[in-house]
Design goal:
Blueprint: E1 9-13, H1 15-32, E2 41-46, H2 50-59, E3 65-73, E4 83-87, E5 97-105, H3 109-119, E6 125-133, E7 146-150, E8 156-157, E9 173-176
Parallel strand pairs: 2-3, 2-5, 5-6, 6-7
Antiparallel strand pairs: 1-9, 3-4, 8-9
Helix pairs in contact: 1-2
This protein binds 1-O-pyrophosphono-5-O-phosphono-alpha-D-ribofuranose, manganese (II) ion and magnesium ion (MG).
1-O-pyrophosphono-5-O-phosphono-alpha-D-ribofuranose binds at residues 45-48, 73, 75, 102-110, 162.
């Protein structure tokens, strides 16, 4: 029966496809940042980016450091969209090369907020990598520098992505059927 108790889900990306794409991203990012004076700081956005961050860092060929930030947004209940900082980074990012690591960009609210917040501390460079990107619906002020896959506007779970905190540990990424959207 599987983990979804009879609900209809499509596998969008298998573990193998995910890992192949992670490796490509890791090679590209490693190449782009290979001349950094100090190791780039990867800032994972909790909780969803946990597994992508771990896989990406370990697939990179250059030395990196890690930090984490946690925010909470109310874009599902508020049309204006409010983002609240729940846990800040502890690293000093001034003059450092910083890479924000996200599992998914949906409305774009989180990344718009995080870019502004990080830029106020004058990093040497600031980039964003997102594994999934709902390009059609997002209202990003600036496109992510690195994108795993562009996906349609469907609710997805697995590889860190949750539905009410469930399904994060699934190694593949699944989408709920469009007529069965769990939002
Ligand atoms: C999800 C996802 C991104 C964010 C994207 O996180 O992991 O961080 O929403 O949405 P946006 O582009 O509309 O801002 P969520 O707030 O569900 O927290 P979680 O990572 O702990 O699941
Ligand atoms: Mn998240
Ligand atoms: Mg979530």
């Amino acid at each position: 029966e599987g983990p979804f108790q009879g609900q209809k889900l499509d596998c969008l990306f298998s573990e193998q496809e995910i890992q192949a794409r992670v490796k490509e991203l890791a090679d590209q990012i490693s190449h782009d940042l290979e001349n950094a004076k100090k190791p780039p700081i990867l800032v994972g956005v909790l909780n969803g980016s946990l597994f992508f961050m771990a896989d990406l860092m370990r697939a990179m060929s250059i030395e990196t450091e890690m930090d984490f930030i946690k925010i909470s947004s109310y874009h599902h209940t508020s049309s204006t969209g409010t983002v609240r900082l729940v846990k800040d980074i502890s690293a000093q990012i001034t003059d450092r090369d910083v890479l924000i690591v996200e599992d998914i960009v949906d409305t774009g609210l989180s990344i718009n907020f995080l870019r502004n917040r990080m830029l106020s501390n004058a990093p040497h460079s600031l980039r964003v990598v997102t594994f999934l990107y709902k390009k059609e619906v997002s209202q990003l002020k600036k496109e992510p520098e690195y994108i795993g896959f562009v996906i349609p506007n469907r609710f997805v779970v697995g590889y860190g992505l949750d539905l009410d905190q469930k399904y994060r540990t699934l190694r593949d990424i699944y989408a709920f059927a469009p007529d069965n959207k769990q939002e």
